[in-house]
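Form P-L/3: holo structure prediction, ligand pyridoxal-5'-phosphate.
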Amino acid sequence: MNLKNFVLTQFERLNPRLVGAVEKPLKAIPFVNRRLEQEYAAIMADLEHELKPYRGEFASYARLPENGRAPADILADIQTLTHREEARWKEGFVSGAVFYGDDDHIQFLNQAANLAAASNALHAHVWPSASKFEAEVVAMTADMLGAAHTPDDICGTLTSGGTESILMAMKTYRDWARDTKGITQPEVIAPVTAHAAFDKAAHYFGLKLVHIPVDDNFRADWIAAKNAINKNTIAMVGSAPTFPHGMIDPISEMSALAQEAGIGFHVDACVGGFVLPWAEKLGYHLPPFDFRLPGVTSMSADTHKYGLAAKGSSVVLYRTPELRRYQYFVVTDWPGGMYFSPSMAGSRPGAAAAATWAALVSIGQSGYLERTRRILETAQFIRQEIETMPNLRVLGDPLFIIAFTSDNFDIYRVMDRLGQKGWSLNGLHKPSCIHIMVTNLHTQPGVKERLIADLREAVTFVQANPQAESGLAPVYGMAASLPARGVVGDMLKRYLDLLYKV
Ligand SMILES: Cc1ncc(COP(=O)(O)O)c(C=O)c1O
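OUTPUT (holo model):
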């Protein structure tokens, strides 16, 4: 019996609400636990082949080599590995993940990073260039997101990515609310579609995340947000747009609510920060989403996504320097000296700051405008084509992240079929659907047409083979619907264990 059947027979017939109560005691029964472990091991053994394709082909190390290898030899290995993986994303087969592809830009970023490879932004006195780069990236991002239209001194810091930006904003609100309002049981209101990084922040920083639903159009139900505010609420979250369905939450309504309640309001523009300002300039009618709205007190915008910098950089912004100070961490009586750091990391790679600065300054306003135009046109084409397919349904009214599902067949099987053709789209759930986050790579000639042709074929295939059960679809289907969330969580943790196997 495979894990799916085993788990289903153990748990699935139970009422989902009951499962929550019985899952833990059931797993504590030695037989059940042993059996689960066996089933996990079988699944992981299958996955191991997929995740460790280089075993036996390239030298691998579980301990330091006796003597160092020749640099040329090492670089040759890295180059071969990189080249093998490159074609898939460079040819536009991947949703999101990589946001640029042209060789000149990549080489330029690499050069910038190489030049600053030794620098550490933690030591600004040694590398003032690193703080110059960080400060200017923050200022340029703030300017793009409405700083020029408010008398407030919008400010922020550079971080390692969207998740760190979100973690920092949530920690900031926790410390601000404790200091200024004495709140010790902090709650944050977030739509169910807000990025998982908010769950992570709640987990790390002891916050209660109060989820509110979304409407039929997958936008936050702001009336529910209003009803969820209480004396422990420290902040509210909206996305512009959301990761799953690419929808912009009702930011102005939420901004007004937050302002009236005197709580923070974080707009997660990790994905949209470097797209929406340009979309507006291109004439797309968008609701306001940034610091032009007075209730917006912080934002995140990822330079390493549509900002077209290399991975490892994002910006978190605050309405005031006073608020930003709650993000900082200082220790004044450590034998190691005065310690002060703005964000999660201690040492911060000056290379990331330099490459990010290089990306922003090299592309400039006209560059982002032109890239946004191409991305939005491509996304519109994809959306319209999907809308012509009788058994597919686009969710919401998206701009450049197109989520779709089917009421007639298992959409994860379409994802599997596309996977066989090289595509890597994202599988989502609640409701079951898949999405493509359209990037510059999809604007290359022929990519969008190839996607649509492959999608049509995949739909035809799935309709013609309604019973076939293979690939990831059953696993996805199970993971999405299984009421025993602890079992799903166990599997994900074992998957992470697997990644660290040599
Ligand atoms: C809306 C949104 N917020 C936050 C994040 C987290 O960003 P990162 O993966 O850079 O940590 C993502 C990632 O896709 C996102 O789509």
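COMMENT: The mean pLDDT is 93.
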